[in-house]
Amino acid sequence: MKRSTFLRLLLGGVGAIGAAIRPVRAQMPKIAAPVNPPPPAKDRSLQLEIEHAIDRGLYFLQSKQNPAGYWSTPETPGLTGLVLTAFVKEPTGAIKADRPDFVQKGYDYLLQSQQPDGGIYLKGLANYCTSVCVLALVALDSADYEPVLKRARTFLINQQGHFPPGSEGEPYDGGIGYGDKSLHFDVSNTSFALEALRASESHYRAESNVTGAKDLDWGAAVAFLERCQNLPGTNHESWVKGDPKNLGGFVYDPLNKKGLLSYGSMSYAGLLSYIHADLKKDDPRVTAVFDWLRHNYTLEENPGMGLDGLYYYYHMMSKALSAHGSETLAMADGKEVAWASELALKLINLQQTDGSWVNSAGRWWEKDPTLVTSYAVRTMEIIHSRV
Questions:
Q1: Would you say the pTM of this structure is higher than 0.85?
Q2: 382 to each of 51, 71, 369, how far by Cα in Å?
Q3: pLDDT at 160
Q4: CB neighbours of 190 closer than 8 A, spacing ≥ 6?
Q5: What pLDDT score was predicted for residue 348?
Q6: CA 144, CA 180: separation in Å to the nearest integer?
Q7: pLDDT tens digits, residue range 189-224?
Q8: Which of 79, 177, 235, 323 has a CA 20 to 30 Å removed from the CA of 15?
Q9: Hey, is 44 helix, strand or coil?
């Protein structure tokens, strides 16, 4: 099916397949040409394949929406937030401009999920859900949602752990956890929150600009990330290994009670978090994790985790390397890898006949095709302009 047909079906709704559908362009408001148009694609043929895969994935996702407006489960609005971001960020901008009814219904569900404390959650995973929903709201770029975003930002800032030296929570100081009041803080939750705070800060007036308003302690967040990185010199925990296999990579949390080695998805989350915390590319902590990632580059698995979390790994790879600005990765043997093109081809080959993606390994919900398809579509959207 042609790309234009998919978009027309999305904008018209699945039930409108047999009905007359207005052309996409006719539905869109007139938009001024960008001041700085994007550079021409390096590989337009591959870019068109990416667009086709995105459309098929979005068509699958549209068909899976619950009549109440959510996707996958009503108790975890973060999943709906991830799906909505995938729709709004599709390359043509048609869905964002037109905001069809099913998309608006999803956003209405997010708004209904905001709690008195500002978080956007229902049952658990409060930080994750709020962070992902903030990204979805920012993606729509509507001033109508600014009050919602400000309250959500305050909630995320309040999730940061603050513990005095010598206390049980000292290793977690500066980190962010699930938001369930437990003594648990990790790189994954911290990275979600930092990304959401930076994204909303760039589109809306940050709470830190309001006199007397509370802001995140970014220095403490960086110190927390240091305690999760396999890097002697900045991390003095007993589990830290200085061997080449682990040097520079990240683990899940600072105590590392499971004795995990450095692994892929957390190392990309660590790199992305350092970038959001304004560390420069030549900072030793950044160069160390970047070197670990390029030396362990693979698309066959989540390094150190096998197939567990594979699509989350792809998603974090696309975000972190795009933020880092790396077009290629230099392997240990001197080979230069065009990671964006390779990742695009990998995902195209993994897409199912119905347009979805799914992981054969079920850890971290990756047997849920809605979650995994959202990861894959967002990954393709991020790398679309890089090929």
A1: yes
A2: 11, 22, 20
A3: 97
A4: 175, 176, 221, 224, 225, 273
A5: 98
A6: 29
A7: 999 999 999 999 865 554 444 444 578 999 999 999
A8: 79
A9: helix
Say whether pLDDT at 59 is over 90.
Answer: yes
Q: How would you write 232-295 as a 3-class SS string?
A: CCCCCCCCCCCCCCCCCCECCCCCCCCCCCCCHHHHHHHHHHHHHCCCCCCCHHHHHHHHHHHH
Q: Is the C-alpha dihedral spanning 137, 63, 366, 298 positive or negative?
A: negative
At 336, give phi and psi (nearest 5°).
-100, 125
pLDDT in tens, 350-359: 999 999 999 9
Q: What is the DSSP string of 69-93?
A: S-SS-TT-HHHHHHHHHHHHT-TT-
Closest-CA residue to 265 (of 231, 315, 195, 328) = 315
Angle at 269 between CA 198 and CA 146, to 5 degrees: 25
How far apart, in Å, are the Cα atoms of 52 and each of 6, 31, 58, 313, 355? 8, 23, 10, 22, 10
Tokens coding 210: 């309001």
Residue labelled with tokens 């990185």 = 229
Q: Which of 296, 175, 301 is nearest to 245 (CA)?
A: 296
Is the pLDDT at 310 greater than 70? The verdict is yes
